[in-house]
Amino acid sequence: MAYEVDRNRELYARARQGIAMLPPASARCVATAQVLYARILERIEARGYDVFSGRAVVPTAAKAATAGRILLIGPPRIAVEPREAA
């Protein structure tokens, strides 16, 4: 399970570059989902990767706070490195 969590984090990191290319309203929605799913991964880790005894969830208040913050200030910014010419 630790392998899958790490793999998801790598995929999320690669996907962040695409969020910056989306229209602002879409970027906010996708960024909110990404942040919340990343928090679920943190909760899975905190439970010792036990995904069978119950769901790893983000509390509703935390979801609302995250969505509100991203709606107000926009998605988290990342530095995008220029791609080398092939």
Please characterize this protein's 3D structure.
The chain is mainly alpha-helical. Helix content is 64%, strand content 0%. The chain has three helices and no strands. The protein starts with a helix and ends in a 13-residue tail after the last helix. The model is unreliable at 79-86 (pLDDT under 50).
Order of helices and strands: HHH
Considering DSSP H and I runs of 4 or more, what fraction of the residues is helical?
Answer: 55-70%
Query: How many β-strand stretches?
Result: 0
Overall shape: it is flat
Q: State the end-to-end CA separation.
A: 36 Å
Low-pLDDT parts are 79-86
Strand content: under 5%
List keywords for this structure.
mainly alpha
Q: Would you spell out the secondary-structure blueprint of this structure?
A:
Layout: H1 2-19, H2 24-46, H3 60-73
Helix pairs in contact: 1-2, 2-3
Please provide a brief summary of the model.
The radius of gyration is 15 Å and the shape is flat.
